[in-house]
Amino acid sequence: KMTRLLVTHLASRGLEKITIVNRSLGRPQELQEQFPDVDIEIKLMDDLWDVVGRSDIVYAATSCEDYVIDANLMKENGLGGGGRPLMLVDISVPRNIGSDCKTIDNVHAYNVDDLKAVVAKNTSMRQKEMIEAENLLREETSSFCNWRESLAAIPTINQLQEKANMVREEELNKCTKKLAQNENLSERELEAVERLSRGIVNKLLHGPMSHLRSSDNINDQQNAIKELSAMFRLQDDKNDRGGKAGRRTRTRNGR
Question: pTM of the predicted model, to two decimals?
């Protein structure tokens, strides 16, 4: 079971070739069938040291109660250090790899306790990242809620722009009639007066509209909306338009 889990993990990490050393061929052959995408080579225990000598990483997962690999055995089999780097990982309980293997040059040996320490460190890092992710999520949620609440100001902003533009057009029409009587004013000059009137209105509205958009919470925004609505009498204009629309509808129905 441990070997199957190990092969599953290694295959998920992209490892393409694995050599399994076992006392018999039965279970390794089952793993070959279960993992057809992985090149699994099967060797018997007689070939253990040949496999160790040409491997980069060796995992030990047997039911033996004695060491399968230790420093003396490695030296006896010509692996006394100074060669290629080798990593030994013991995931057996009881241990199958002697801790004295760490004394051999270029050999790095790890056991279950070492792996537990790595897991604990990674868990701590992930918990820290989770806290950071939660803080980021709260910030983004707050930003989204503020944006959603800011949508409540859009109708008031539209009403304010509509009223300001209506007043601008009324006054501009009065002024344009007088200016048109002056034959010295060209079409281009009249257009300049039009652009000037729009620019003045936009600058005057910039402050109130920015105030509406910049409110930090819904209560401040609602108060700002009420103040601007009362200041510019937006609700009265809305009721007037509604009344006129109602009168037009009744007139059509009367016909």
Answer: 0.48
